[in-house]
Amino acid sequence: MPDEMRERLRDALEDSEYVSHEASKPEFLVYLMGPYKSFPPYESPPMGTDVATTRPTLDEIDERLAAGDLQLDADEALALLVSLRRDLRADTGVNAFLATDPEISLHEMDAATQSIEFTKAATATVFVAPAMGDNLGVGIEVGSVCEHLDERPLLEDVVFYGEADVDSSMVEAVSQRWHVTVDEFRSYDDLYRAVRTHLRAVA
Q1: Cβ distance 187 to 195 under 8 Å?
Q2: Proportion of the chain in helix, strand, coil states, percent, rounded to 5
Q3: Residue 192 neighbours by CB distance under 10 Å
Q4: 160-192 tens-digit pLDDT
Q5: Quick one: pLDDT at residue 30?
Q6: In what order do the strands lie in the sheet with 158-163?
Q7: What are the helix (H) ranges across 55-135?
Q8: Half-sphere exposure of 36 (CA within 13 A, CB side)
Q9: Range from 40-54, 109-123, 142-156 that averages highest in pLDDT
Q10: Domain containing residue 49
């Protein structure tokens, strides 16, 4: 199954409308996982609006990133992942992708199963937990992924980066229960350097 999924991912990423850079190392698949949504900007939505629950599409995120506008308010978490994907593909050449990039229908494969299969097929997997992110779903998926992976890839291929302000018992469990490498980042540059270092170690 991992080999079949790997080929499917390569084909899907080559044709994905959301991936704007060709990877020079198409075999080096890097699965990036983290929250797509930040905490809502308001404790409750203003009367007559749905600002706290309205999110930009991936296309809109890409357009704003290309324009140099990262003030995305409610979706800085997604912007972080999109920036990381773009920089890794453009500067490092690896075939970095988000779960939505292959566009596999949830009717065919549910989200948790997708994350498990993507991780098994990927050369490396990077979990990112930014302080502004709505990290509950990520925590659930991390646990699911870790329970379905063998010890060697967990120790060598998977890494978890949490922003310095993130304090979670789930993050501690990732290290204590599954012995996944866990580290902190304080800025985007810190995160990017750490990810590149991890990918060099995997390679």
Answers
A1: no
A2: 45, 15, 35
A3: 17
A4: 998 877 766 777 777 788 888 888 888 888 899
A5: 97
A6: 94-97, 25-33, 124-129, 158-163, 181-185
A7: 58-66, 76-87, 111-121
A8: 11
A9: 109-123
A10: 2-202
Q: Structural domain tally of the chain?
A: 1
Rounded Cα–Cα distance for residues 178 and 187 (Å):
26
CB atoms within 10 A of CB 187: 10
* CA–CA distance, 176 with 185 (Å, rounded to integer): 19
Cα atoms found within 13 Å of the Cα of residue 136, Cβ hemisphere only? 3
- Two tokens, residue 163: 């922003």
CATH of the domain at 167: 3.40.50.450
Summarised one tens digit per residue, pLDDT across range 60-118 is: 666 766 676 655 444 678 888 988 998 999 999 999 999 989 988 889 999 889 999 99
Amino acid identity, residue 59?
D
For 81, the token pair is 């992942």
Tokens 């379905």, residue located:
148
> What are the φ and ψ backbone dihedral angles of 25, each rounded to 5 degrees?
-120, 75
Model pTM above 0.85: no
Cα angle 191-197-203, degrees, rounded to a multiple of 5: 135
| Residue 159, pLDDT above cutoff 80 | yes
Q: 52: number of CA atoms within 13 Å, CB side?
A: 11
**Which H or E element spans position 173?**
helix 169-176
- Any idea which of 15-19, 78-82, 137-141 has the lowest mean pLDDT? 137-141
